[in-house]
Amino acid sequence: MADEIVLYTNPQSRGRIIRWMLEEVGQPYRTEIMDYATNSMKAPAYLAINPMGKIPTITHGSTVVTECAAICAYLADAFPAAGLAPALTDNARGPYYRWLFFAAGPIEAAVSNKALGFVVPDGRERMMGYGTYGDVLNTLEKAVSQGDYLAGGKFSAADLYVGSHLAFGMQFNTIEKRPAFEKYLAKLVARPAAIRAKELDDADAAKLTK
């Protein structure tokens, strides 16, 4: 199919974010499971699609998109009927971009550094795009405490992406389990698309362990 959507993923990866996004979009897609054990992400056929040899990646016809935030933004715009992004003329478009890329930048970097035991030296915070880990979490806590959703009072791809970071981080103790985070996340993971995505990924994970 000329406009087929293909998701290259592994159920034990950030590909879970994109599976959820695709379930929210509601369009047919095909899944290609990449196996860490066989190193299929470094195979020439996949490197021709994503030279980084990482997942997730989607193809939509001849278009290739990598990086989770970019994939979320692309799918939201490619399928506007799903209502996953504010319109360009909507004032909520600014907060939508802000928090989507806050997660892709400061949250991702701060949480990854914390997981690896890296602490920004005193007085060197200005060198880091995120300042400090505490700055990032405090800013995020304030954002999710101001309403049900981050952009215009309606669920969007920004909530999906931020919520996924919170879910992963709190599961693996790289993000503090603050009450505001837990309250915000609870309504996101209860969405039917989130539940479907989890079931699909869990089923694929079970197959890989057999």
Query: What gross morphology would you assign?
Result: globular
What is the CA-atom radius of gyration, in angstroms?
Answer: 17 Å
Q: Give the tally of structural domains.
A: 2
Between the first and last Cα atoms, what is the distance in angstroms? 32 Å
List the secondary-structure elements in sequence, H or E.
Answer: EHEHEEHHHHHH
Number of helices, where a helix is a run of at least 4 consecutive DSSP H or I residues: 8
Q: Would you identify the regions where 5 or more consecutive residues have pLDDT less than 50? A: none
CATH topology-level name of the largest domain: Glutathione S-transferase Yfyf (Class Pi), Chain A, domain 2
Structural features, described:
The protein is an alpha+beta fold and 210 residues long. It folds into two domains: 5-83 and 194-208, Glutaredoxin (3-Layer(aba) Sandwich), CATH 3.40.30; 93-191, Glutathione S-transferase Yfyf (Class Pi), Chain A, domain 2 (Up-down Bundle), CATH 1.20.1050. Helix content is 50%, strand content 8%. The chain contains eight helices and four strands, in the order E-H-E-H-E-E-H-H-H-H-H-H. It has helices at residues 15-25, 44-47, 68-78, 93-115, 133-144, 157-171, 179-189, 192-208; strands at residues 5-9, 30-33, 57-60, 63-66. The chain has a four-stranded mixed β-sheet with strand order 2-1-3-4, with helices on one face. Helix 1 runs parallel beside helix 3 (68-78) and helix 4 (93-115) runs parallel beside helix 6. The two termini are 32 Å apart. The model has no long low-confidence stretch (mean pLDDT 95).
